[in-house]
């Protein structure tokens, strides 16, 4: 990665962190902790040349498909889409208000979102269908899907993993936001995932793991997955911190369902950089 791109991605990470907190202040029902853990992943994908997209034509046939399966935890994507021109930035001020298409759980009515994301466990299956369809069309477009680790408790994910591995879907990349906290506790206290990498490999997936808050590592692994034309799907396990830069929410076992008070958001925003 050259210094210019690194500086851009680092600055965008700070910008998106701040915007995510401000969105949460305006709409406290948003899942801010889950949204803060995937900031670097989203920044690398949209500003790092990983995804093909056209903000002026969100349904452009030649676009890559990005399925945000952990929809409730992707409020940090709102400022990115607005910044890139998918919709006016003024819409960010109306989040959660009557008449706004920006809700606490994203809907495909939002330009840039592909699917309904309220019920967890379906994104990977939808992504498999898209990958098969694009392959049969001889399209060069790729499919990326981001899931949360708590979401992997849904059995539908493992059916999709088995399907993708069996059919060798080499145009499909799975990104796991592995922040290790589910809705009501640490994952290890609910059902331990053990080694996700070993499980994915057992389903004939290629696997890589990285620090999800290191923008250079995130970009390098996403770029490598993008350029890998060999057989089989790829799983990227991003080790992250739930509530990263969210003060006392960081690694709180119940941070998924907690909100920050307005004064706490203001205190965090006084910092020059994301902690």
The CATH superfamily label reads: Thiamin diphosphate (ThDP)-binding fold, Pyr/PP domains
**Main β-sheet: number of strands, strand sense, barrel status?**
5 strands, parallel
* Distinct helical segment count: 10
Q: How would you classify the helix and strand content by structural class? A: alpha/beta
Radius of gyration: 18 Å
CATH topology: Rossmann fold
Task: Lay out the secondary structure.
Blueprint: H1 3-26, H2 32-36, H3 39-47, E1 65-68, H4 77-84, H5 123-136, E2 143-148, H6 155-167, E3 172-178, H7 187-190, H8 196-202, E4 206-211, H9 215-227, E5 234-239, H10 262-269
Can you tell me about this structure?
This protein has 275 residues and is α/β, with parallel strands linked by helices. The chain has a single domain (3-269), classed as Thiamin diphosphate (ThDP)-binding fold, Pyr/PP domains (Rossmann fold, 3-Layer(aba) Sandwich). Helices cover 38% and strands 11% of the residues. It is built from 10 helices and 5 strands; from the N terminus they run H-H-H-E-H-H-E-H-E-H-H-E-H-E-H. The protein has helices at residues 3-26, 32-36, 39-47, 77-84, 123-136, 155-167, 187-190, 196-202, 215-227, 262-269; strands at 65-68, 143-148, 172-178, 206-211, 234-239. Strands 1-2-3-5-4 form a 5-stranded parallel β-sheet, sandwiched between helices. Helix 1 runs antiparallel to helix 10. The longest helix is centred in the N-terminal third of the chain and has 24 residues, at 3-26. The model has no long low-confidence stretch (mean pLDDT 95).
């Amino acid at each position: 990665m050259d210094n210019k791109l690194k500086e851009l991605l680092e600055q965008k990470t700070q910008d998106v962190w701040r915007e995510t907190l401000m969105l949460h202040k305006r709409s406290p029902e948003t899942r801010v902790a889950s949204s803060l853990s995937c900031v670097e992943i989203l920044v690398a994908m949209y500003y790092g040349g990983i995804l093909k997209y056209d903000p002026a034509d969100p349904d452009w046939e030649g676009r890559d498909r990005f399925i945000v399966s952990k929809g409730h935890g992707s409020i940090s994507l709102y400022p990115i889409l607005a910044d890139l021109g998918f919709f006016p930035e003024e819409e960010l001020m109306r989040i959660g208000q009557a008449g706004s298409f920006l809700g606490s759980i994203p809907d495909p009515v939002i330009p840039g979102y592909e699917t309904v994301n309220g019920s967890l466990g379906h994104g990977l299956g939808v992504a498999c269908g898209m990958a098969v369809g694009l392959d049969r069309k001889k399209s060069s477009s790729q499919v990326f899907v981001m899931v949360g680790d708590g979401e992997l408790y849904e059995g539908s994910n493992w059916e999709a993993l088995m399907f993708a591995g069996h059919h060798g879907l080499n145009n499909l990349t799975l990104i796991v936001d592995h922040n290790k906290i589910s809705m009501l506790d640490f994952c290890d206290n609910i059902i331990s995932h053990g080694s996700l990498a070993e499980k994915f490999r057992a389903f004939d997936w290629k696997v890589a793991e990285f620090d999800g808050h290191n923008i250079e590592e995130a970009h390098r692994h996403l770029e490598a997955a993008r350029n890998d034309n060999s057989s089989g799907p790829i799983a990227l396990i991003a080790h992250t911190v739930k509530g990263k830069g969210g003060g006392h929410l960081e690694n709180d076992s119940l941070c998924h369902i907690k909100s920050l008070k307005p004064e706490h958001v203001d205190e965090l925003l006084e910092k020059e950089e994301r902690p």
